[in-house]
Every structure is written in C-alpha cells, then in structure tokens.
Amino acid sequence: MRAGFWILFVALSVIGCKGGETPPEAQSPTAPKEAPAQPAEQPEQDPGATAGQAANDEAAAHGADAPAEAPPTAREEPKPAAPEIPLCDPAWGAAAERCGTLAGAELAPVQPLLDGRLHLNPLPGAIKVPKARSIMGADEADTDETRLFLEKGQEKFVIMAYEPYNLWGEDFTQAIHGIFAPPEGEKHTVCRVPLDTADDTVQRFAVTPLKLNLSGEAVLVLRLFVGHPDGSMQRVDFFVNPQLAQEEAGCISLARRIASSLSLGPKRLDKSARQAVVTGTTIALPAEWVISLQKGPDFEVHQIKRFVPLGMPQPLLAVYKGRHPRRIDTEGDVRRVPVTLGGQETEWILREQPAAEDRSAWHSGDVVYFTDHGLATHLFYGTPPAYLSEVQAMLAHFD
User: How sure is the predictor about 83, in pLDDT bands with cuts at 50, 70 and 90?
Assistant: First the structure.
C-alpha cells in the first residue's frame, strides 16, 4: 500500500493575501550545556505572511526570521483525544459557482510548489512571483515559500504554499482542534473529505468560514494543511481580492476545485544527521534539522530549522553573511559574554526568558564578527530549552 498523506482544507474568516575560543560552559552558547528535558512548541497580511518568532531589524531588512522573543505558551499538558471530525457533504468538491470571470476556467498544467514537494493545477495565467520586498530584502527560499499570482483585469487570485517544518504526527487532529478552539471554532465549520484514492490512510479536512472578512486588500478563502508521508506538514493558502470575495460561495468553491488537484511531488527532505556547509563552515547538522538559503543583492542568510510537532515552539539558528549586519536589541535584561571569533574579540548578547502564563521558556542570542574582506558573519538563534544543546553544538563549529 502506498504511503498516505493528509490534507486539511481551511478557509478562515481572517485577512491575509509571512566555535572559536570557548567561554565558560555556563555562559556561552558555543559551549553546549545540557538543557533540561522539556516539551518543545499569523496574523494574515499580504499573501503568505509566515508564522514565526518576533522579527528583529535584521530579519526585517534581509528576510530572515529572527526569534528574539518567546512564542506563546506551548501545549505541554496531555489533553483528551480530539473528537471525530465529521465527513463533509458529498457536494463539497462540486464545480465552482461564479467567481468573477474565473470560475469556469479549465485548470492549467501542473505547477510545482515548494521546490517540488507538492504539485497543483492552478488557474491559467498564474505565474510564480515572490512577495514584494524592500530593495535590500531577500526573497524567501522556494523550499520554504511559493507564490502563484494571477491578475486578470480587476480580479486577483493568489496561492501561497509554505513549508513550516512542522510534523503532523498522531496528535494532528488534536492540534487542529486547538487551533480552532473558540472563538475561532465558532467562525468555521470543520469536516473531513476522503480523497479519491484506494489508499484508506489518506484523509483531508475542510474548514470553511461562516463569513469572509472583507476589510483587507486580500481575503483568505481556503487553507490546506498537508500531511506528507515523511511525517512533515505543508500549508497552502488561497486568496482573492475584495472584489472577487463579494462572490464568496463561488470563490470558495473555485479554491476547493483547485485544491482538489493537489498531489505529492518528487522532492523529499533529508532529515538525517549529516555534515552541512553554511557560509563556508562545515557543521554537524543533528537529525530533524534542515537548512534553507535566502539570497539578497549583496548578502545571504542560511536559516537552520528543526522539525517540531504542529503547535509547539520551533527553534531557529540563522547565519547572515554580508556587509550590513543588524544586531538584535542589546538593551534590557541581557548577558554579554566575550568570545573570540574570526580571530577578533566580540561578544555574545544572550537572553533567557523563563516560562510565564502567556509564553514558553525561551533562549536567544546573537553575535557579529568580521572577516578580512569586510564581510560580517551574524549568528542569531532562538530556541526553547529542549533544543538549546543542539543549537549550541552547531554554534561550536563557527570560529
């Protein structure tokens, strides 16, 4: 039997259209200290705003996520099993009603999403266009984000696909119920739609808004969570402009028709422990960690992320190489730890946020050092305690 995958269709009533010299072990992130074992883990804006930690100035300028603050408190206590999600009405995937001039169009040939992780048949004329960024910004890596954009006269239809590096696991349904707990759950209907396949392990879920929110420049009409056979989860969002959204029933139906064409692509992610090169430095990448690369006009950012279950805090280690590093805010309750990197004296800026009612415990830090050619290396990270030792082990390779 073929390996199965899950798809969760969601249409939300929200708007959206994103080493060296080793200091004392207890202080430096380059000298791993065993972390206590703890369980690990948007607003919608212009199509495809990604989830993540609070971005710092460098992240805003260069396109890198920089988790300087703790995310909301993770689900750390066991919860009762989620109730069974009912089957959708058989007419859920019926042909689209009117959605401007788009509803009756025959779907275009297959397009790869996320560098080939997924395939989908979009509307004719849809092209791959990254989100607009500042002149000094960097496009998201295609491995992390794909944007298909269609503009026909005054009509706009956008598909955003994301690789959030989440695991769907056995508690996937429980996590979904957590996302759509009241008050969100009161704004949507949730149902399960079997795929047209002989593999009975394949399932998909549909979450449909009771009323679309038309107050922004773009309206999210459908969301998919895709459970991949390798245990990972992808997300695909469908947006229309407010003009099209006036015909919400037809536009939701159209998005569902396009979504029904979704299939797995040939691309597979390597989640094994292995050696990897990051800005010229070879590091030992632990299992479950992956690397994506953003390239700007005169810089690059490697984002090293760990797969975590949906709804749990996600650690990030980012490495910027360029001429204009921007450090995380150095004010407030921070620790400064001297260190020698790249043959020069510099310092780590470290922060430790204890667990609180509204957030999980969180460790973060950053350091900048320069090479002989005037290029700067900026290392910055954010992680819950459970993965701190893994982050520190990778940082130890930079000198």
Answer: low
Residue 36 pLDDT grade (very low, low, confident, very high; cuts 50, 70, 90): very low
Average pLDDT estimate for 344-363: 88
Q: How does DSSP assign 300-312, residue by residue? A: EEEEEEE-EETTS
The reply to whether 102 and 208 lie within a common domain is yes
What distance separates the 2 farthest-apart alpha carbons in the chain? 67
Phi, psi of 92 (to 5 degrees): -55, -40
Residues 12/207, Cβ–Cβ less than 8 Å: yes
- 13 vs 179, higher pLDDT: 179
Mean pLDDT of 10-28: 34
Q: What is the pLDDT averaged over residues 64-72?
A: 55
What SS3 state is found at 291?
Answer: strand
Closest CA to 190 of 168, 209, 211, 214: 209
d(CA 189, CA 210): 7
Cβ-based neighbour number of residue 37 at 10 Å = 7
Give the Cα-Cα-Cα angle 19, 22, 28 (nearest 5 degrees).
90
- The reply to whether 114 and 67 lie within a common domain is no
CB atoms within 10 A of CB 342: 17
Determine the average pLDDT of the residues in 191-205. Answer: 55
Helices then strands, each counted (H, E), the chain: 5, 21
At 6 the three-state DSSP class reads strand
CATH classification of the domain holding 384: 3.40.1000
On whether the CB atoms of residues 310 and 172 are closer than 8 A, the answer is yes
The pLDDT score that the predictor gives to residue 105 is 87
Element (DSSP H or E) covering residue 393: helix 388-395
Q: What is the pLDDT of residue 398?
A: 92
Residue 29, domain member (yes or no): no
264, 279, 295 — which closes off a domain? 264
**pLDDT tier at 49, thresholds 50, 70, 90:** very low
215: CB partners within 8 A, 6+ apart? 15
Q: Order of strands across the sheet with 263-264?
A: 111-113, 118-120, 263-264
- Please list, in sequence order, all residues whose beta carbon lies within 8 angstroms of the beta carbon of residue 84, skipping any fewer than 6 positions away: none
> What pLDDT, in 10s, does the model give residues 280-300?
999 999 999 999 999 988 899
Overall domain count for the chain = 2
CB 145 within 8 A of CB 160: yes
319 and 350 share one domain = yes
Provide the domain limits for residue 308.
57-73+270-395
